[in-house]
Amino acid sequence: MKAEATIGKRNAVFLFWGILDAFYIIWYCVNSWLGERIPYFSDLSASITLLEQQGGVNLVTALLSWLLQFSIILSCLIFLLQKGWVKYLAYIQTPFRIFFLMPSLSVLLFAAQLLPGYGLIFLALIIVSETLKIWSLWKFV
Question: 23, 37, 89, 113: least buried by Cβ within 10 Å?
Answer without folding.
Answer: 113
